[in-house]
Amino acid sequence: MGEHSVVEDWRAVNRANWDERVPIHTASRFYDVEGFVAGKDPLRDFETAEVGDVAGKSLLHLQCHFGLDTLSWARRGATVTGLDFSAPAVAAAGAIAARIGADTARFVTSDVYDAPTALGGRTFDIVYTGLGALCWLPDLERWARTAAALVAPGGFLYLAEFHPFADVLAEDGRTVELDYFRRDGTVWEEPGTYADMSAETTANVTVEWQHGIGEVVSALTTTGLRLEFLHEHDHTLFARFPDLEERSGIYRYPADRPRVPLMYSLRAGKPA
Q: φ, ψ for residue 2 (rounded to 5)?
């Protein structure tokens, strides 16, 4: 459940939560690591269409967890670097990279705000991020400045995220329950994980932040990046609400139900 007190050392609390869940996630059916090693592609069709051809390009994945999406871009020909604040996640990513022969893939342990220093000032053709990433960051303007600094001239940032409007809905998917405009951190204490709700866990506290669409776009455009598109999507990646129906691996409302945005994606370029 959500609470209104904020844990002072939010970064350490969140890292402990993610560190504990890495082995649960790598063993889960949700992520299906063995299927990935055998060739399964976890990237979503709209992402690959919107990012475009990555062959021969450098790609940085911020907050990459244990790297399945990162390595999927490597399979498409990108030279990839993944960055995450969880050392167990980075170790797991490196092991999976070795299993599939992704010899040029690199994984770095670092807080996202420290990424420019951790990466030695390097810049990339594509900075890719999202899918439950922004909610872990309290300072969105700092994130935007950091991400923009990592984009090479002529390159772009690509973000795919869960839509913040869906985050205000109750579990029934119909009732507005939370404040869309709340910006202070929310403390949650929940056992298990989205990949295995029955998993036994002890590091169950997290601190998360809500960021509206306008906040995200404004933060990015003030860095000098130029917004190329912002797309809102009527589908999501899991059965978030009871009325959603699965179709070809994505979840949508039935045709007779009014739709709400469940995900969004944007691309912002840096002038050459």
A: -85, 145
Q: Are strands 79-84 and 186-189 parallel, antiparallel or unpaired?
A: unpaired
Please tell me whether residue 158 adopts helix, strand or coil conformation. Answer: strand
Task: Give CA–CA dist 103/165, Å, rounded.
Answer: 40
Neighbours of 241 (CB within 10 A): 18
- Cβ–Cβ < 8 Å for 129, 159: yes
Q: Are 249 and 46 in contact (CB under 8 A)?
A: no
Cα separation, 213 vs 232, in Å, equals 10
pTM recorded for the entire structure: 0.95
Evaluate if residue 263 carries a pLDDT over 80.
yes
Give the residue with greater pLDDT, 5 vs 47. Answer: 47
Q: Tell me: the pLDDT tens digits for 198-234? A: 999 999 999 999 999 999 999 999 999 999 999 999 9
How does DSSP classify residue 140? H
> Does position 48 have pLDDT exceeding 70, yes or no?
yes
Rounded to whole angstroms, how far apart are CA atoms 126 and 118?
17
Q: What span, in angstroms and rounded, lies between the C-alpha atoms of 103 and 229?
A: 33
Sheet of strand 235-236: strand arrangement = 235-236, 250-252, 245-247
Q: How far apart are the C-alpha atoms of 238 and 242, rounded to whole Å?
A: 11
**Distance from C-alpha of 228 to C-alpha of 221, rounded to nearest angstrom:** 11
Q: 240 in helix, strand or coil?
A: coil
Report the SS3 class of residue 151: strand
